[in-house]
Design goal:
Blueprint: H1 9-16, H2 18-25, H3 41-48, H4 53-73, H5 75-100
Helix pairs in contact: 1-2, 4-5
Length: about 100
Amino acid sequence: LRALALDDAGEGLSAAFDDIDALAERCHFRDCGHEAEPGCAVREARASGALDEDRWRSFVKLRKEIAYQASQEDPLLREQVRRKWVAIHKGARARYKAREHGG
């Protein structure tokens, strides 16, 4: 089932999770990631139990899958993701070497 690509996946995500979209509109920041930002309506709803944690995890998982699919279809985005992971691995190797040499 994952092999099927969704047409207009972003719109489908909004339609399927319209409750989360409505909460996100009330967030203090327009680019809220719903993790640690102050004034996040989604985080407040999760904390109060108004938004079911399983529903939130499903939303996050589907959003990640849509982003991955987009990165596979767009060469510029794919290169951006590759560079991000190269930097992450380079940093990890540097920390490992520093620890190895008593740093």
